[in-house]
User: What shape does this take?
Amino acid sequence: MQQRSVLITGCSSGIGYDAAHGLKSRGWRVFASCRQEADCARFRAEGFDSPRIDYTEPDSIAAGLTEVLEATGGTLDALFNNGAHAIPGALEDLPVEGLRALFEANVFGWHDLSRKAIPVMRAQGHGRIVNHSSVLGLVVMPWRGAYNATKHAVEGLTDTLRLEMRDTPIRVITLNTGPVTSKIRVNSIPHFEKWVDWENSPRAPQYREKLLKRLYESRGKDMFELPPSAVTAKLVHALESPRPKPRYYITTATHLMGTARRVLTTRAMDALCARGG
Assistant: This one.
């Protein structure tokens, strides 16, 4: 029986790293892709296949998937779109170029890779595409507008693709993750510094009082924060269950906010979400 194969993006740390190791331990052939070649080399030293895929570089997406298919003889059982980053800051301070760059990394690259994987899965008669959304794909929080927007876009793309794949053997699944231990805060700092001129913002005092402390100071774990293994556990079910759920909530925060979105008025929801600013 041929070994099951999965391509995971964003494996350099955190959720992707844990997922790669967790699935390998379950017998999957894991293609643990990273944006930086140095991280790929580290994975290869750990015994993984590790194609370099940067969602903002279409050539790397095509080359990375080609590398996977050459290694498997042209098959791919599952794709986990996971790699993403954030640009913290108020939307009024975010240049459109920054928003466009984030959409390239968090949305357009995902769509590109998924479209390239679908013909492979159609031809082999099965496949699963798991897109890693967020609690911020269900609700929004201030100071996270760019990330909110990309995750809401992922929700729309994933839901539509799931409907359109109903007449195929391809299953499309969403993971909505709340606070999970990762490097997303630290990794967002260079993007914040590149795109947001906070010192000349009318909100400069708010940046000093709130966002800068959140970005640059280690505050310990957030409320309801879980380790990356919590995501891996749901991913395993999404990939291995004969009847996977279309959506998996991860962390108490996601369950609470998902319920709040259903039962609260818009005004009440705004008041609740504003507290996260």
About this structure: The chain has a mean pLDDT of 96. The chain has ten helices and six strands.
